[in-house]
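We keep the chain:
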Amino acid sequence: MNARAAIAALALAAAAATTASAPIADASAPAQPQHIVLIVADDLGWNDVGFHAGASGRTQVPTPNLDKLAARGVRLGSYFVQPTCSPTRSSIMTGRHVTHMGIYQPNLGPDNTRGVPFELPFLPEQLRALGFATHAVGKWHLGTFDRRLVPTGRGFDSFLGYYGGAEDYFSHEAINASDFHFDEGLELRPFMQAAGRYSTHLYAERAVKVIEDFARAKERRDAAAAASP
């Protein structure tokens, strides 16, 4: 399974969960649970998706599932991210420009004491306040110096992935040390069992499991999942 297949599996699982929990609408019935899947794709170029192929319809990278999402949704062609990682991610999570956070350096590594200021609204915290279950997989890169800065300290119910900016796809090491975690709530746990397994498979399996578990749950909550390969 490659990255495109992982995104396809995630999209199909989300669609199945939505279908299972959304019978024919009744104006008098309570609102059905909502679903949010946020995919942050590192280094995704303009020409790396099929729906930017233009009139020719030709693209070097077939992305049929992303193309379908784009065709059925709203495309915001004039919104731009920062040129580096941590500033972009901090803006996505807060809705603020980096000047409001002072995060200009590309990488918030383990030796960096900075992070998104705690007083700023943070996306998963806001979603949890509205009743959403929040889960994340993949790359974090928004600070680890304080345990309050890691994903489950900033509003995610669970996190599977790495805190830093890069990892080996199989050993999951960074600078000769493992940086792979499976955190739930305030229980922070190195996930050594991941060694030898390809990252994309791990992220896809976890994200799909979260969505499928939600579809089977008797107690309905709104569901949000963030995938950050």
User: Anything to note?
Assistant: The longest strand covers residues 132-139. Residues 7-25 have pLDDT under 50 and may be disordered. The CA atoms of residues 7 and 204 lie 7 Å apart. The chain has five helices and seven strands.
